[in-house]
Design a protein that fits this description.
The chain is mostly helical. 84% of the residues lie in helices and 0% in strands. It is found in: Membrane.
Amino acid sequence: MLLLFCFQCFIHCCDNILTISIIMAAVLNTFIKKAFQKSTLIGNHLFRKHLLLTNATFSMAMGVAGDLVQQHYEILTDREDSWKAIRTSHMGAAGLTTGVLSHYWYILIDVFIPGSSLRCVVKKVMYDQILFSPVNLTVYFGTVAALEGSWKQLKAELWEKGLKIYTAEWIIWPPAQFINFYLLPLRYRVLFDNFISFGFDIYSPYVKYRCKLKEHDVNEDK
């Protein structure tokens, strides 16, 4: 009975997320069309000629914004005394590297799985969640480790903190990415990705800096 109840709750949660994602995708698509209808030149520069720069910049900005929100909350709850600019810069850098990675991933997956039929979209969603998401998390934690010089604990962080984020992603990303691959053209996918992942941009710094590693995992990596 408990398993059945949990399964029903999971299905209900996915239905709600799917509905919200559809609405957000439709609103985003409409907004983009209207926003650039009278400014085609700007639209072409941002989402065609300089798409990589647009995706990288927006991803970096969202990484910064997410950490600012998280740090503000930590200060309000007396967990931190002041804003740590260096930490925010690291989150921005992680957003930059994962943004560039996402840019090329969406291009690559369209090459190997062309089309937007139901079968193709389901394949893309599964490849995205099973293959790309762990790679993306590795790049995220690896970027921060490179900047902080914390390579020794990277393995433990990926196993504990990365797994915590990856588990949470299974609730959000499959339905969201279904909408992304099915409704949106390639050039808007990273933008939609960033809107959906803003919650993770807030949650990830919390996991990275507030969740402590188990002592034996830290010792094993020394």
